Amino acid sequence: MIDFDFNAIIRNLPYLWQGMQLSLLLTGLAAAGSIVLGTILALMRLSGVRLFQWIGTAWVNFFRSLPLLLVIFWFYFLVPMVVQRQVDAFNSALIGFVLFEAAYYCEIMRSGILSISRGQAWAGYALGLRYSQTMRYVVLPQAFRNMLPILLTQTIILFQDTSLVFVVGLADFMTSAVTVAQRDSRLLELYTFTALVYFAMCYGASAYVKQLQKKIHR
Amino acid sequence: MIEISNINKWFGSFHVLKNCSTQVAKGEVVVICGPSGSGKSTLIKCVNGLEPFQEGTITVNDISVGGKGTDLSKLRAHIGMVFQNFELFPHMTAMQNICLGQTKVLGRSTTEAQDRANALLQRVGLGELGYKYPAELSGGQQQRVAIARALAMDPIAMLFDEPTSALDPEMINEVLDVMQELARSGMTMMVVTHEMGFARRVADRVIFMDQGEIVEDATKDDFFTRSRSERAQLFLSKILQH
Q1: A169, A17 contact by CB (below 8 A)
Q2: Which of A16, A27, A74, B160 has fewest C-beta within 10 Å?
């Protein structure tokens, strides 16, 4: 502890900040994509159509039974093969995250939709709204609002999970910290700093979610 | 205008509607009453296809509700419905509630829809409350907004499913008054209700249901003075005691 070198951190802040930007970008895009996909999967699971129900259920069961690390690796090699051209690590990781996280967001949105009473959908239909309109204007906005705290909590987990892109060499915050730590031989400083940053951000966000939850369920 | 013939409906093995037949003429006000669980709410929800039925036919303006080629959404747009629990959309203001169907279904412009909404809010006595959310309104006010929302679609008929059952007693009359005014204006109405005072004042006909059957279907005067069935007499004696 005697030669704890703060300069090792300060010197590398611009580089680490770049990594953080990538982490946040990946989290934002992955969350947006997987909430949309998860909502579609939830509607499929709740539809009266057997085939859709089966697809939705299979999707959720499949991805929830795999380690995320494996999915990231897998898509890194699989996606370029499927589309028959080079895909950079960011895009393949993004696709992997969206498909994987959609399984979790699906279940959140599904319980959100189920929490809206049947009468609300009836009221929409009675006005002449079609299924898609009833979902879009009546059911989903309420489901989304009710589930917002849980969706955000899942997004905080997603933010932590983006650190796994380390395995495909994507320079996110975590990977950048490891790179600097090893290059400068300042492992203790960098890992401690990284831990503090992740903690501060995630704990802060959780505290905000708690406030929000109180506000929504007031 | 509304023809219901030989409707049968089952929830699983439970026979909720048994051979129900009746018809409602243009401008007629028909009250449906009966003990709870008698199938009256289910019957009225069959009229706009919210509840599917297995046998029989219902036509509204000669369009078959259960028919294969029927565009149910299009049909529902012209049949107003008011629910027991109001079912206003809680994430929208009263104004937005009244405008949603107008803009998304009828394709009216926002200004046009708002003008219509304002006129209807006036009509139900809530002229200044359009900006409020449902949670900020009393039950009676919410139900009046719900009526305005249904009327905004310029319906050819209105269905009321126990519109005052969820209301505190002091708010029942403000809703019934609006309904009475509507009936006087010539609206075709089917009303599921226990409010026999309303039935006496406003109804042309009264239908009494019990255990999924239409037991009586009579003009108002006949129903209240010369009920033929024992079950209807028993029901009336219970409900009119107080």
Answers
A1: no
A2: A74
The pLDDT score that the predictor gives to residue A185 is: 85
Q: How close B223 gets to chain A, by Cα (Å)?
A: 31
How far does Cα B8 stand from its chain's mean position?
A: 20
The full DSSP string for A168-209 is GT---HHHHHHHHHHHHT-HHHHHHHHHHHHHHHHHHHHHHH
Tell me the CA distances in angstroms from A53 to A5, A47, B68, B122, one per residue in order: 57, 6, 24, 46
Task: Classify strands B29-33 and B2-11 as parallel, antiparallel or unpaired.
Answer: unpaired
Distance (Å) from the C-alpha of residue B27 to the closest C-alpha of chain A? Answer: 20
* B24: β partners: B2
Q: Which residues of A touch B79 (CB under 8 A)?
A: 126
Distance from CA of B136 to the nearest CA of A (A): 14
Q: Tell which of A127, A146, A217 to mutate to test the B interface (max B CBs under 10 Å).
A: A127
CATH of the domain at A58: 1.10.3720.10
pLDDT tens digits along A78-114: 888 888 888 888 999 999 999 999 999 999 999 999 9
Domain count for chain A: 1
Tens of pLDDT, residues A164-174: 999 888 999 99
Average pLDDT rounded to a whole number, residues A62-67:
95
**3-state class (DSSP) for residue B192:** strand
Which helix (H) or strand (E) segment is A16 a member of? helix A6-46
- DSSP helix, strand, coil percent of chain A (3-state; round to 5): 85, 0, 15
User: Do the domain assignments include residue A183?
Assistant: yes
Residue B67 exposed, middle or buried by CB count within 10 Å (0-12, 13-18, 19+):
middle
pTM for the model stands at: 0.87
- Please report the ipTM that was assigned to this predicted complex: 0.93
In this structure, is residue A2 part of a structural domain?
no
Largest separation between any pair of C-alpha atoms in chain B: 55
Supply the range of the domain harboring residue A151.
7-217
Q: Cβ of A141 and B91 within 8 Å? A: yes
